[in-house]
Amino acid sequence: MSTMNKVISPVDIEGRQKLDLRSGDTVRVWQKIVEKGKTRLQAFEGLVLARKHGKEAGATFTVRRVASGVGVEKIFPLYSPIVDKIEVLKRSKVRRSKLYHIRDKAAKEIRRQMRNVRMVKEVESTPAPESTPETVEETPEAK
To answer: How many angstroms separate the CA atoms of 143 and 141, rounded?
Structure first.
């Protein structure tokens, strides 16, 4: 009877269940990518915004990172064979289970930075006084 209930999967299901993955963790997810018949591993490192559906078969987690000034989010299935391994790099103490407000916070920060960049460009665009000495014309009263 026990052989009937055994699940055959290329993924270490017990290992993924024991992985204590929470929102606020900084993780590195190694993803298998197939290119021209070859398989390579690509890392995606970022902050876990959400963990959904607990430990069931359809469990997912959302990871966000900023790449070249643009926020990128990926949703990974927890038990997918495409995900090679998940490394928890850092733990943060958070007070919410879903950190979707980080998106707005990051956008606000970028707007603030852009405002500073715009001000700097205005200062640079003003023409600087020339360094040549000014010529003084002599008036008849000065003679």
So the answer is: 5
* Residue corresponding to tokens 């998940």: 86
User: Considering just the CA atoms, what is the radius of gyration of the chain in Å?
Assistant: 28
CA angle 54/59/61 to nearest 5° reads 95
Q: Cβ neighbours of residue 13 under 8 Å, at least 6 residues apart?
A: 7, 79
Nearest in space to 16 (alpha carbons), one of 55, 50, 45 = 55
Architecture of domain 13-125: Roll (2.30)
Distances in Å between the alpha carbon of 64 and those of 27, 51, 119, 128?
A: 10, 12, 30, 44
Indicate yes or no: pTM above 0.85: no
Digit-coded pLDDT (tens) for 46-59? 999 999 998 888 89
**Beta-carbon neighbour count of residue 75 at 10 Å?**
11
Rounded Cα gap, residues 1 and 50, in angstroms: 37
